[in-house]
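Project standup — Tuesday

K.O.: blocked on the structure for the chain from last sprint. Re-posting the sequence here as requested.
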Amino acid sequence: MTDIDDALRDVMRVDGALAASLVDYLSRITLGAVRSSVQGPDLEKVAYGDTDVLRAKLSTLELFGYSPDRLEDIVVTLDSEYHVIRPLSRRARQGVFMYLVADRGRVDLAAARATMSEVALRLDI
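H.V.: unblocked you, prediction finished:
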């Protein structure tokens, strides 16, 4: 098992990663955060704002009759960045998500998503 700090360091090894965090979306509290030397977003504000994004999507899935466990991640595409929100499905009842900000020109999005998935499986919180 991997602790929060080790998990976030593993996610930051993705080429192009700018910032990563782990957020409790029930309380909007950041459980851990890491940034590259490049200036990234305020991860406390990210925790607050993207909690609403995730809650909205989970609510929409419920309207469709879909299980929340079907949601792998949400990718937000900006002009120069990708923002990836990944709820931890094994811990869905605890309300935790992993967040990655990556440089759009440098990151392999599929590889980043795969890394986040693998790290989430090892995470012990």
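K.O.: great, moving the ticket to review. The chain has a mean pLDDT of 90. Residues 43-64 form the longest helix (22 residues).
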